[in-house]
Design brief:
The protein is α/β, with parallel strands linked by helices. About 40% of the residues lie in helices and about 15% in strands. The strands form three sheets. Strands 1, 4, 5, 6, 7 and 10 form a six-stranded parallel beta sheet that branches. β6, α4 and β7 form a beta-alpha-beta unit. α1 runs parallel beside α3 and α5 packs parallel to α6. It binds zinc ion. Zinc ion binds next to loops.
Length: about 240
């Protein structure tokens, strides 16, 4: 795929809510709500990750569509983002690491189960939020396969997707992900200029508070965001 080719935008949020002056990328509830309003106003079709992957499997890259994902499963995903999404009528996907669920500041298993049964797609974010390039081969099964099984048994839903923490993965990790039965995997926007669409390394666009500016949000939603990035920093 050429850098100027269309790519359905998959938006990545981390915390939506109050800034806590930590390393977590945070979008305020006010800006998040505004973005949902703009998606509606601009007549975007917000697809679930399941719908997008079905289209990709058919060789399509749906236009004027976007996918909303959350990494890490912060408590605010349930408290702040989910009610706003429900009001807008938009589906979303939440990636969690079982080792973090239920800890202070994170969603609980009960909350995740409630969201899953209401149609939110839940995915794995490895067992311990591990940066996979640093994980030894004999630990990959736990991070990638056991994490899937634990979430499935906790929420009573099949887990079909995974997002690589910090976007990091290896060919070996991808092999385990495929063997585990995942249908697709998400990364960050790294390797954005490579050709082709790898269903086991779907690129996503990181959302920040700056995207409260409609023009930047529009660029990120355009499906040509990599072209904008390339113009900004050629090479
Ligand atoms: Zn993460």
């Amino acid at each position: 795929m050429r850098p100027w080719s269309y790519y359905t935008p998959i938006l990545t949020y981390h915390r939506v809510g109050t800034f806590q002056y930590d390393h977590v990328p945070t979008v305020s509830g006010r800006v998040f709500e505004r973005q949902l309003t703009l998606l509606t106003r601009w007549r975007y079709r917000v697809l679930s990750l399941t719908e997008l992957v079905e289209r990709l499997e058919q060789g399509q890259m749906p236009r004027r569509s976007a996918v909303i994902t959350f990494d890490d499963g912060y408590a605010e995903t349930y408290d702040v983002a989910w009610p706003l999404l429900k009001r807008a009528g938009f589906p979303s996907t939440v990636f969690v690491a079982p080792g973090e669920v239920g800890r202070p500041g994170f969603v609980s298993w009960d909350q995740l189960t409630e969201m899953a049964h209401d149609g939110t797609v839940i995915g794995s974010h490895t067992m311990h939020h591990s940066y996979l390039p640093h994980v030894k081969d004999d630990r990959l099964n736990e991070e990638l396969i056991a994490s899937k099984q634990v979430i499935e048994s906790r929420i009573g839903r099949a887990i079909n997707f995974i997002s690589y923490p910090i976007g990091g993965f290896t060919a070996q990790a991808q092999e385990v992900v495929k063997r585990a039965g995942y249908r697709a995997a998400c990364t960050t926007n790294r390797r954005a200029f490579e050709t082709g669409i790898d269903r086991f390394a779907l690129r996503r666009i990181k959302m920040t508070e700056r995207d409260g500016a409609a023009l930047l949000f529009y660029a990120k939603l355009s499906g040509y965001y990599n072209m904008f990035r390339r113009l900004k920093s050629p090479g």
